[in-house]
Write a structure and sequence with these properties.
By secondary structure, this protein is α/β, with parallel strands linked by helices. It has one domain: Alpha/Beta hydrolase fold, catalytic domain (Rossmann fold, 3-Layer(aba) Sandwich). It is built from six helices and eight strands; from the N terminus they run βββαβααβαββαβα. Strand 5, helix 4 and strand 6 form a beta-alpha-beta unit. The protein starts with a strand and ends with a helix.
Length: 241
């Protein structure tokens, strides 16, 4: 596994200035790149660790801070932060991240991926339907159906799946009460019906956020390790192959 280094950068999303955490391989060279989304707590340690792990696998990785430096410390705070963010704002942030990655010498323009968890996993359905520059997108337990349609969340993610433009990886927990297995089956069926390239895995006994090792109540070491290996194989196939 390669060594890496990381630092914070700023980028523009429309009129907004966003902070982002960048991790990249230490060795000079040309590397594929991945934009990463954080969970509803914000840009805390877990997404930074994900970025560093990806950098050590040979990817330039950028995590966009969609909450402007705010962090959720309780369930209520996290809920309030996530509900304050519109889909359009989130997608604009990820698009700014992709544009920034394109300008980096170590990130070839045509080898770009996206990875999201929980809240940002939901966003990645939407991003994959819009961003033609993406070569692969991976979703860890992102909800395919909204709790409700609203001004900030005007469409169900599953409804845009026919428009995705790249291979899709979906990772879900069978014990995730927020994403029933019927919804996962529906995602699989839509992707199959529309001839998309995809892989979907559901882990028995795994709850929502089972890959987050900072949440001991939900962390599932075996499922997390297997899901991570599948994600790396997926990105290696479509971004390095």
């Amino acid at each position: 596994m390669a060594e890496s280094y990381s630092y914070t950068i700023q980028l523009q999303s429309g009129t907004k200035s966003l902070n982002a955490f960048l991790a990249r391989p230490l060795a000079e060279g040309s590397y594929p790149a991945i934009v990463v989304g954080h969970e509803w707590a914000g840009l805390v340690d877990h997404p930074k660790t994900v970025a560093i792990r990806l950098a050590r696998e040979g990817y330039v990785t950028l995590v966009i801070d969609l909450f402007g430096g705010e962090r959720g410390r309780t369930m209520d705070e996290c809920k309030a932060l996530s509900e304050s963010l519109s889909d359009s704002e989130a997608i604009a942030g990820y698009r700014s991240g992709l544009e920034s990655l394109k300008t980096m010498d170590a990130a070839p323009q045509k080898r770009l991926g996206a990875l999201g968890f929980c809240m940002s996993g939901r966003h990645m359905y939407l991003l994959a339907s819009q961003a033609t520059e993406l070569s692969a997108v991976a979703v860890f337990y992102g909800r395919p159906q909204n709790a409700r349609i609203s001004e900030k969340q005007p469409v169900h993610p599953i409804d845009v799946l026919p428009q995705i433009r790249c291979p899709f990886l979906g990772i879900y927990g069978e014990a995730d009460v927020s994403i029933p297995t019927e919804q996962v089956a529906a995602v699989r069926e839509v992707l199959r019906k529309h001839g998309k390239t995809f892989e979907i895995y559901t882990y028995p006994g795994a709850q929502h956020a089972f890959g987050n090792d900072t949440n001991p109540e939900r962390y599932h070491p075996q499922a997390s390790a297997d899901a991570w290996s599948k994600a790396i194989a997926f990105f290696n196939k479509y971004l390095k192959g």
